[in-house]
Amino acid sequence: MELPFAESYKIKMVETIRRSTREERQQWIKEAKYNLFNLKSDQVFIDLITDSGTGAMSDKQWAAMMLGDESYAGARSYYTMKEAIKEILGFDYFLPTHQGRAAENVLFSTLIKEGDILPGNSHFDTTKGHIEFRKAVALDCTIDEASDTQLEIPFKGNVDPEKLEKVLQQYPAEKIPCVVLTVTNNTAGGQPVSMQNIRDVSALCRKYGVRLLVDSARFAENAYFIKTREAGYADKTIKEIVREMFSYADIMTMSSKKDAIVNMGGFVAFKEEALWQKAQMFCIMNEGFITYGGMSGRDMNALAQGLDEGTEFDYLETRIRQVAYLGSKLDEYGIAYQRPAGGHAIFVDAKKVLPNVPKEEFIAQTLGVELYLEAGIRGVEVGAILADRDPVTRENRYPALELFRLAIPRRAYTNNHMDVIAAALKNVYDRRDEITRGYRITKELPIMRHFTIELKKAER
Predict the structure, then answer these.
(1) Dihedral angle computed from the Cα positions of residues 218, 340, 124 and 303, in that order, rounded to the nearest 10 degrees
(2) Half-sphere exposure of 188 (CA within 13 A, CB side)
(3) How far apart are CA 210 and CA 212, in angstroms?
(4) Each residue of 371-423: pLDDT tens digit?
(5) Across the beta sheet with 137-140, what order do the strands follow?
């Protein structure tokens, strides 16, 4: 008989997690103003709020940390990280930062001016926040198919080349500091971008004299999908696919807390030496000297090792199959999510799970609160709260997709935990007719409000 699938690792250390009572959770979420970010981690049983920095590092990563060089300037760890970025990703110049949004801050401080236009595929919250904070415009050019959660196509995160070319034709190149290509496309449900689409976007950038920025938090997962879904790549290694992906890019930003499997760290990398030199000032001002940029030497060592491990097929297969397993359990229970299952998370279609909650009362957030009350499971809303207000009209933006993201930390939970998550969602779904009201905002920040927003139950 064919052997069943097994994880490509064994467990060496465990952390105890505690089950709470529903009565406790009711009090805790009320004290948190119905914002899941405000919960203490000890109040959460299964924590799926993010896969960023929440994974389990390997024995080799922990060993590498012990060799970290903590020199302020010119540390060995910087050059270890530099070598890994060059060998695996193909970039000659980089600036370390403490995480991905810091890399965006350094880069966008260098590139963006008021009134600029940055087209891309479903800019994520921090990316859009950095753009709009600078009074520039993030234009979404994602394919229309991404808005249909039940449609199954292999590369649902793609940019629509026709939409992109219209933007590039409409605005002069000097108004477009870069095109932002996010791999995988997080906001659209962790959906991958094909190599052909990367190639096509790059060609349009060359045609119109615009740089291509690849937002690379989950680039390795994207490479896995290219290998398993796109013709011509089945026999290529993940590292070969990664090198080709980045051969089409001019710049990359990286939250290394995802595919480099570290708890903290990131970087921005460049093909152009002149742009790298220009960005150094913002790195020094906001992060630190250019050879540490907000990172300790031990973290740079762990990041370099994680880039290597994170671009191996066996690791990626284990990681992505667990996400697919959770999707298969939701299929059994008839719970709609963005299909096919993405690389790092399941994005539940909140509109289909809670059809009676008005959009003005934040459907995905309501689902998140109900799931927490049901089983102590924490996810994150990717819907109208995250979409923020229109920067001009200050009206709430209601995106086509109202999703609740269940992000799976790397090498942290077992499939038994996936079974609990699925069963808890089923219990919420089974009582969907009873859930007719959501939440109202009582306090919010002007940008990236979802992290600290305060809510109250909507009244009839």
Answers:
(1) -10
(2) 29
(3) 7
(4) 999 999 999 999 999 988 988 899 999 998 899 999 999 999 999 999 999 99
(5) 93-97, 266-270, 251-255, 212-215, 179-182, 117-120, 137-140
Catalytic: 304?
no
Q: What is the DSSP annotation of 415-449?
A: HHHHHHHHHHHHHHHHTGGG----EEEEE--SSSG
72, 135, 207, 457: the active-site residue: 72
Structural domain boundaries, residue 382: 22-51+313-457
121 touches 142 (CB < 8 A): yes
* 128 a catalytic residue: no
Give φ, ψ of 348 to 5 degrees. Answer: -75, 135
Q: How many independent structural domains does the chain possess?
A: 2
Largest CA distance in the chain: 63
Q: Looking at 254, 278, 309, which one is the last position of a domain?
A: 309
Query: φ and ψ at 342, to 5 degrees?
Result: -80, -170
* pTM of this structure: 0.95
Same domain for 242 and 348: no
Q: Do 317 and 294 share a domain, yes or no? A: no
Find the Cα–Cα–Cα–Cα dihedral 359, 360, 363, 368, rounded to 10°.
Answer: 170
**114 and 92 within one domain:** yes
Q: Is the pLDDT score of 448 beyond 90?
A: no
CA distance 267 to 24: 40
Is 292 part of the annotated catalytic residue set? Answer: no
DSSP state of 393: T
Identify whether residues 317 and 302 lie together within a single domain. Answer: no
Per the CB < 8 A criterion, the answer to whether 208 and 240 are in contact is no
130 is catalytic: no
CA-closest candidate to residue 155, choices 132, 121, 128: 121
Examine the residue annotation and report whether 450 is marked as an active-site residue of this protein: yes
Residue tagged active-site, from 47, 140, 215, 299: 215
Sign of torsion over alpha carbons 37, 41, 42, 46: positive
Give exposure, 303-334, as e/b (b: 16+ Cβ within 10 Å): bbbbbebbbebebbbbbbebbebbbebbeeee
Question: Does the annotation mark 124 as catalytic?
Answer: yes
Name, in order, each residue with C-beta under 8 angstroms of 82's C-beta and a sequence gap of 6 or more.
94
Q: Within a domain: residue 16? A: no
Buried b (16+ CB within 10 A) or exposed e, 370-390: bbbbbbbbbbbbbbbbbbbee
Domain-embedded: residue 257 = yes
Share of the chain above pLDDT 90, in %: 94
Same domain, 204 and 321: no
- In this structure, what CATH number is given to the domain that contains residue 252? 3.40.640.10
